[in-house]
Task: inverse folding
């Protein structure tokens, strides 16, 4: 005897009716419209990255790596990018780079304000947290289908899928970083007559910046991990190379694509981590934020050391 | 003098239903009972006091007495459950958020216990924060901030970050930040509590020097009674959210309102509370040109004194002890001994408002200390025994009133 003997819920039918019967026909124009800014940004970046000569691009990245991640990383960047070019995957890498940057840009534009709102308002956070939990735990394949139904196939839907998948870290860490700014500093800002906006810009954001950058870094990594999956619904770049290789059982091609993704990931990861470490001031580092969660007495901004 | 800040019947209840707790309070229940019945905490109960312009008003109490809650109600960081807090005509307790912001920007500033300096801004940017929030231009606010830093002696550190400064220096920046907006009332929440004792002493003295010059109206929170006695023109003692006694340092030490206050003041340094004036007595003097040693001996025997001062007209010539005068008089036989032969020309002297603690050295000589006024005229003497008497126990009000009248007559 079990509940299913009494009552069967046709959940799948309901979802089908909801999405196919109501959402898609009624909101298709809206969903098409949402793609426009994404496509614009993507195409702009894609054209730009394709236009810049390989050597110039490599040099720029190597310099960024040198400034933010050290000499070893700069050398790795030079060698890695040279390797990518020599295995003939430079254009695809630039496409992937454009996709990633677009996705992270939209994640930041949506995610940081959401994080700020959540930090100010407990109710917002109460609603947002389970939503983020769902977004992070649902396998990305599961929401590929509705995305195709609503947005079609191509680069833009691929980026939308990436944004949904990669959004949670930036929201969470923005929320956490802002909440963990020292209470007495907030009090001081308030005592001198700051408006909430002034407090945000002058005190909270600067001091939470390290944690927010850590969030951005994590979002970037998740976006990179979606590259292959996004290719399933029509996104191009290195993900497509891997997928094509897998489809044809061409181990060489799949591996080449994979290596390209890994090199790109390492370079971008180290550079963005280095960005977060910048500054000689004790902002709220990710490490201290985490420690303060487990040890209530520890001040969230006590450390002047590196971020996690 | 006008009251700059008037606090009237302020209550603060921390909890979901403050009206319930207020009602219970009105019925006469105490803090613990109300907490048990409603789960709400009484932060402040029926707090009323006035602070006059240019006064340092010290609010004192142990942890949990409600003093931090009170100071935060004065600038609206915590909103009172009922009552009014009027600063220069504006009621902080019941004004709108934008009015409150206005008051915070222009009328009232705060200095915090743990400095609360923004670590990502330089010293001068920190000092200028209140001005920036008001919308002042960059050049003007840097200028004003530098002025404030100058007042606390930190102008040279303007472009450093707080992390490179010591605790005492950081607190001075906090003070500069509070002064930069030229507020009418300055709130100081245990500002020297996080500093080591030597620096604390320095800062207290510096505050007094600044206050002499600026004459700000200051509400100063502390749990250190000695600090309260040193700084406070008026002191309010708080316990469990209520004000137990308000008065000057001397009033509180001399007449504690209840056992709690008495226990509080039992350990204070009475030498820092009372001045030479409170233990002085009317001087019995001899005249240099007309009196002899024999006259001096007689006077001292009659008045039961160990020594008398010798005047040359209006000015002090010296002091003669009983022993010296008596010995000289006896040995000379029938001849008169001139006072100038037996008197000491080196004698201890002080001002009427010198604290007893600063008289120990002078009193240890055994001679009465001469109290002189600004014209160097003798207005009273302090017998060494009187110093000890005052140090050991509360002085009745009537004695000092008597002495006041005598001193007035002498002047």
Result:
């Amino acid at each position: 005897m079990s509940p299913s003997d009494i009552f069967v819920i046709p959940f799948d039918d309901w979802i089908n009716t909801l999405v196919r019967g109501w959402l898609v026909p009624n909101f298709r124009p809206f969903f098409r419209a949402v793609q426009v800014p994404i496509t614009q940004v993507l195409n702009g970046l894609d054209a730009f990255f394709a236009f810049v000569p390989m050597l110039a691009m490599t040099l720029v990245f190597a310099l960024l790596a040198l400034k933010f991640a050290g000499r070893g990383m700069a050398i790795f960047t030079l060698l890695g990018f040279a390797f990518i070019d020599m295995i003939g995957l430079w254009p695809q890498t630039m496409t992937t780079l454009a996709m990633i940057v677009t996705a992270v840009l939209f994640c930041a534009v949506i995610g940081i304000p959401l994080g700020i709102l959540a930090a100010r308002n407990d109710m917002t956070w109460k609603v947002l947290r389970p939503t983020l939990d769902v977004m992070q735990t649902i396998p990305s394949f599961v929401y590929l289908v509705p995305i195709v139904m609503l947005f079609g196939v191509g680069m833009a839907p691929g980026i939308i899928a990436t944004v949904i998948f990669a959004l949670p870290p930036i929201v969470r860490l923005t929320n956490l970083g802002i909440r963990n700014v020292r209470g007495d500093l907030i009090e001081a800002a308030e005592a001198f007559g700051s408006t909430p906006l002034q407090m945000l810009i002058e005190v909270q954001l600067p001091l939470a910046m390290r944690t927010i950058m850590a969030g951005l870094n994590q979002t970037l990594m998740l976006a990179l991990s979606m590259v292959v999956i996004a290719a399933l619904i029509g996104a191009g770049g290195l993900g497509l190379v891997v997928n094509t290789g897998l489809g044809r059982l061409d181990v060489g091609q799949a591996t080449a694509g994979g290596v390209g993704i890994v090199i790109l990931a390492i370079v971008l990861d180290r550079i963005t981590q280095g960005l977060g470490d910048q500054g000689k001031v004790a902002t709220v580092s990710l490490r201290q934020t985490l420690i303060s969660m487990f040890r209530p007495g520890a001040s969230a901004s006590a450390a002047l050391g590196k971020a996690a | 003098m006008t009251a700059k800040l008037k606090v009237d019947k302020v209550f603060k209840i921390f909890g979901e239903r403050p009206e319930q707790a207020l009602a219970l309070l009105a019925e006469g229940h105490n803090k613990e009972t109300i907490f048990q019945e409603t789960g709400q905490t009484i932060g402040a109960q029926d707090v009323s006091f006035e602070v006059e312009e240019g006064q340092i008003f010290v609010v004192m109490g142990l942890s949990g007495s409600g003093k931090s809650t009170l100071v935060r109600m004065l600038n609206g960081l915590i909103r009172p459950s009922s009552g009014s807090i009027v600063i220069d005509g504006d009621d902080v307790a019941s004004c709108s958020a934008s009015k409150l912001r206005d008051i915070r920007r222009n009328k009232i500033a705060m200095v915090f216990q743990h400095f609360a300096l923004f670590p990502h801004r330089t010293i001068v940017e920190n000092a200028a924060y209140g001005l920036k929030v008001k919308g002042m231009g960059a050049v003007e606010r840097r200028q004003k901030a530098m002025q404030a830093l100058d007042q606390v002696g930190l102008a040279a550190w303007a472009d450093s970050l707080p992390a490179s400064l010591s605790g005492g220096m950081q607190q001075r920046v906090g003070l500069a930040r509070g002064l930069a907006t030229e507020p009418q009332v300055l709130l100081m929440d245990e500002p020297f509590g996080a500093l080591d004792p030597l620096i604390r002493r320095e800062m207290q003295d510096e505050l007094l020097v600044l206050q002499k010059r600026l004459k700000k109206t200051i509400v100063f929170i502390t749990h250190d009674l000695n600090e309260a006695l040193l700084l406070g023109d008026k002191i309010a003692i708080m316990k469990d959210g209520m004000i137990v006694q308000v008065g000057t340092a001397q009033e509180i030490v001399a007449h504690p309102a209840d056992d709690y206050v008495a226990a509080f003041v039992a350990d204070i340094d009475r030498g820092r509370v009372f001045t030479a004036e409170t233990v002085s007595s009317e001087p019995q003097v001899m005249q240099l040109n007309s009196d002899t040693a024999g006259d001096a001996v007689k006077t001292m025997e009659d008045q039961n004194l160990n020594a008398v001062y010798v005047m040359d007209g209006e000015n002090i010539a010296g002091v003669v002890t009983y022993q010296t005068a008596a010995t000289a008089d006896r040995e000379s036989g029938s001849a008169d001994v001139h006072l100038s032969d037996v008197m000491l020309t080196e004698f201890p002297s002080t001002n009427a408002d010198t604290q007893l603690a600063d008289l120990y050295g002078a009193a240890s000589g055994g001679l009465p200390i001469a109290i002189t006024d600004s014209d160097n005229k003798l207005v009273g003497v302090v017998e060494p025994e009187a110093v000890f008497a005052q140090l050991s126990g509360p002085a009745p009000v009537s004695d000092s009133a008597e002495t006041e009248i005598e001193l007035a007559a002498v002047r």
